[in-house]
Fold these 4 entries.
Entry 1:
Amino acid sequence: MTTTTRRLGRTDLEITPIGLGCLPFGGPGLANRYYATLDQTAATAIVRTALDGGVTWFDTAEMYGRGHSERTLTTALRSLGVGGDDVVIASKWTPWFRTAASIGRTIGDRLEALQGYPLGLHQIHMPHGGFSSIAAQVRAMADLHRQRRIGAVGVSNFSAAQLERAHAVLAGYGIPLASNQVQASLLERRIERDGVLDTARRLGVTLIAMAPLHTGLLTGRFHDDPGQFRDVRRIRRRLAGFSPATLTRTAPLIDELRTLAAAHGATPSQVALAWLTSYYGDTVVAIPGASKPRHAEESAGAMALRLSVAELDRLAAVSAQVTP
Ligand SMILES: NC(=O)c1ccc[n+]([C@@H]2O[C@H](COP(=O)([O-])OP(=O)(O)OC[C@H]3O[C@@H](n4cnc5c(N)ncnc54)[C@H](OP(=O)(O)O)[C@@H]3O)[C@@H](O)[C@H]2O)c1
């Protein structure tokens, strides 16, 4: 299947509007406090389904099990016969309690965990928790880029001002800032108010939407069966504000997603992803997670869905009514 790709920021990398989030491949540790870790067989089935659906890139991180997610992803790709030039892998360096020097010191571990697959995009996972300035961290990323050990430099959870700073430091090296990974969905539209969207557009930086289904809420399945809350782990529950009151408040949006889904022969989650990757033009791409192949299939299928301007605006209006 061929899907229209987009340029990642002002880099040479081309990616599909939908990638696959690999947090559930994360093994023991923090990732496992969001989602139950999938074994290799389950992960490989999900990666295969995503590829079959036209997805060409994958988001992982050092923090997802200290190499466990990166290794699980690349083991899957290798067993499926996928070459390093056929996909883009994005990973992240964890700044917590570290200096910028650890970016250079840990790149060997990242590349080892990727088992010969190139690290297309390396991201600073968050702007806080490190002992060095953002400028020093970005300079360390620029060094890796100049050494051709990474394909592009990105950041995550950065504010508009932090984005400007990272962009300016990289510009001094003639390197574009590729991306900023932030929470964005029909239930999280802060990027429109906090300057992140405008800044990204002005600087030519792609925004990678994490938790684009609001960790599953936008599928409507919790509205259908609130009892499913019981299986949701604490960090995820907090991230998405899972509660009976949230279900009541967001019900009109889910109804609208269902109406549009029925009109297009699609699912509510596909409509939510199509909105997110269209409403902001080419600026926003999304990395939905999946715990089953069916999820990956559905998410990839959103790339074929075209919503009209009137439908995009209608969803935006209903979303504005139900989000605080
Ligand atoms: N940079 C950061 O700080 C940061 C933070 C968080 C996440 N991320 C990235 O963002 C990615 C996505 O985030 P996320 O997985 O938390 O949120 P998400 O993509 O909004 O939600 C994924 C979850 O929604 C459910 N789901 C997905 N498709 C479904 C479908 N078609 N039908 C029913 N349920 C469906 C599944 O829940 P069940 O597992 O319960 O079935 C799945 O695990 C992560 O994998 C990671 O790469 C980055």
Note: The two ends are 39 Å apart (CA to CA).
Entry 2:
Amino acid sequence: MAGFTSDAILFRKIEYGDHDYIITFLTENLGKVSVMAKNAKKSVKRFQGALDPFSVMNIECTYSKTRKNALPFLMSARLEEPFAGIRTDAVKTGYASYWIEILNSYLEADKEQIELYRLLIDSLAALDKGLIAKEVLNLLFQIRFMTIAGFSPDFVCCGKCRVPIDRIREGNVVFDFKDGRFFCGKCADRTSETGIRVSKGTLKQLFWINNNGIQKAERIRFSPVSIREGEKLLEAFVPCHMGREFKSLGFLRRVRS
Ligand SMILES: [Zn+2]
């Protein structure tokens, strides 16, 4: 194959020498791909200002004829959706950077992952236009990501006695982000360091948005308490299961407060 074209979202752009960039994209057709953009610092015409963070573009790449393991060359990038509303807003930038850092660390190179591509595009579009409250969108992105990645938490029954959430009398339960399960008052391990107290209502709302996706998310009303609990829960659960800290989460927390 001589090359490929695909819609893509820019993940990361690193300077390489005086003139070039190495750019990592999440592409629709090939998953995460790193490419060499020769003379991109000077060649405004070829890329038409398309190489900005968070924008969606159609890229055209070719493979090196002489070096088998060389990065593909980025020949052109045509801007399709600038999502300029994100770049001009520090808090929106914080959310978008966090989502991209999660996907960039999770995805392997050259492996198509269309569900995560769609989740990111739809989340960026909603963030750009302000269709859904940013905080709710962030909960939705994280819970959907965890489900697609196969770390789906159990919000239905107590992780030990299996009593369904609706039949638990107490208003609060303990969600253990290491186990990805919650425990009723009788079963919760009080000494666990990875348990967070949350209301049943918060878990039920997270369960609902996970199953209904972005299109219906604007219908749900999260109380300020549920937003705070959901943030605390998911922003511990995601890094714990990925086995790493996210730099962008520190930035997000600073701009958000
Ligand atoms: Zn129980």
Note: Residues 103-256 form a domain with the de novo design (two linked rop proteins) fold (CATH 1.20.1440.120).
Entry 3:
Amino acid sequence: MKVLVTGGAGFIGSHTVLALQEAGHQTVVVDNLGNGHRDAVLAGEFHNVDIRNTTELAALISRSGVEAVIHFAAFIEAGVSVREPLRFFDNNVGGSVSLLEAMRQTGLGTLVFSSTAAIFGNPQSLPITEDAPTAPTNPYGESKLFVERLLADCEAAFGLRHVALRYFNAAGADPLARLGERHDPETHIIPLALAAALGVGPPLTLFGDDYPTPDGTCLRDYVHVTDLAAAHLCALAHLAAGGPSRAFNIGTGQGFSVRDVIAAVEAVTGRTVPLVRGSRRPGDPAALVASNARATRELGWSPRFVELKDMVAHAFAFQQARRALSDL
Ligand SMILES: NC(=O)c1ccc[n+]([C@@H]2O[C@H](COP(=O)([O-])OP(=O)(O)OC[C@H]3O[C@@H](n4cnc5c(N)ncnc54)[C@H](O)[C@@H]3O)[C@@H](O)[C@H]2O)c1
């Protein structure tokens, strides 16, 4: 299959492009490199295009003959979205509207969309199933939920078939260290804790240690980026086989605390993670853990890397490989 990947130069997109290529698919990446890296697109076509440019997207779709789209391109920082809601809606919703319009114009009718656990807000019970109430606590989550609803409207209006994958916390790196997380600024805990442990970043801030969890710190469901990439291939296969439009929660079903992450980083690096105590961040739920039963049952997806120490070890190996490269 030939697949258009928006945001394919970013963290999860670049790993998915690699997985698609390794499975024998062809890829056409569209990324404006606002937050992505050209050298993270290890194979296939690359086009420096902003997805809000409908005309250019439609021309590219017609010219390249892609058969499906995986749509990652978005802004991702929930905290920034609170300060800059218009910029987030412009990119995440406006960008999706533009892509969907280009798909409508060209008759391209198959889409896998990057959604998020942030659409659920503070869950009423755990693990979180797909039918749990949605109540985002920030504009980022709102923008993703809005797009999920828009996809259903597009199906009703012009037959768009789609899968929304609601990822929990993406973590880890390609196990062969070819790719990894390079957000700038980085806000994700594993790369931040690694940088703190190695003394190449500031001490790690602990945002609240008085949550109603076993050790007082937040519990999150960390899912390995290689497993996330595999979920996209399962979603494409589901749609190609005529499966219905559907949303799936993508996590391992296990919750790890901030202190568990710190312990894993210390075990992997053999160094202490320097800590600073901070207060709770507004809108941070105590615990987010996915039920992946639907994805297992209907997509045949299950995570390969469920140990936190493997996710940390892969992220660490990638950071070390990059550091070795920059020392050359
Ligand atoms: N990282 C996570 O833990 C996580 C969790 C849930 C959902 N998601 C979703 O997964 C997707 C990918 O996340 P990521 O961590 O890889 O982020 P990322 O920032 O590394 O990747 C996003 C990519 O999209 C590109 N992009 C953004 N706006 C664009 C535009 N208008 N036109 C073209 N390219 C554009 C960026 O340059 C970047 O390469 C996002 O949609 C995000 O909301 C991520």
Note: Residues 203 and 274 are 5 Å apart (CA to CA).
Entry 4:
Amino acid sequence: MIGLENISKKYTRGSRTFEVFSNYDLKVNRNELLVLSGRSGSGKSTLLALLGGYLKADEGKAFFDGIDLSSQKDAELSHLHTERIGYLPQSNVMVSELTVLENVMLKSLISGDPSDSEKALLLLDLFGIGDLADRFPHELSGGELRRVSLARLFLSDPDLYLVDEPSGGLDKEATRIVMDYLKERVNDGKTVVVATHDDIVKEYADRILEI
Ligand SMILES: Nc1ncnc2c1ncn2[C@@H]1O[C@H](COP(=O)(O)OP(=O)(O)OP(=O)(O)O)[C@@H](O)[C@H]1O
Ligand SMILES: [Mg+2]
């Protein structure tokens, strides 16, 4: 199973604590595209990070494929993050010294296997930014950077996609290309959870969960 069981999560700032979730359960079905919706600050990004074990809950468990992420050792968790769980944070993370293409291929550069450059270029082409492959991140617009982040996620092709605001900075056409691609992954047997405010993204949902 993929999901959260009896999760509680507080944030602490100085002497003040703020509880975002208390005894919260969430079950994600295999092969579904689940959309997390809700007002700003409702906890969508927090839920995505908890689901992938990128953020630790104060109480409760996060499961991926029956594995209790909260009890995994760092090395095991990072192996899962490399091989099976893919996470697109709400803001873009780029290595400024690397080109766009290298940023897409980050995981394979780290592991010393650059064999997927062709697929990386195809993904950049699919998103209409193939001609930007040799540029550096500071030379790109916000929407272009979003597409680079998405291409990196899609290149890693995880079993579980956790996607925080995929359409940030994208126009309608680009949003549809991205969501069509995610829907195809679900048809391939993958699981996708997306946090969004975007009505176009919601059109692609198998289920919408209001947070
Ligand atoms: N690191 C943090 N420290 C303190 N409070 C935090 C932290 N991260 C999030 N919060 C608070 O937790 C609540 C949930 O935040 P979260 O980012 O999960 O919301 P969201 O639904 O993703 O919002 P948005 O739609 O604006 O992206 C918010 O009230 C936010 O202020
Ligand atoms: Mg958010």
Note: The CA atoms of residues 11 and 18 lie 5 Å apart.
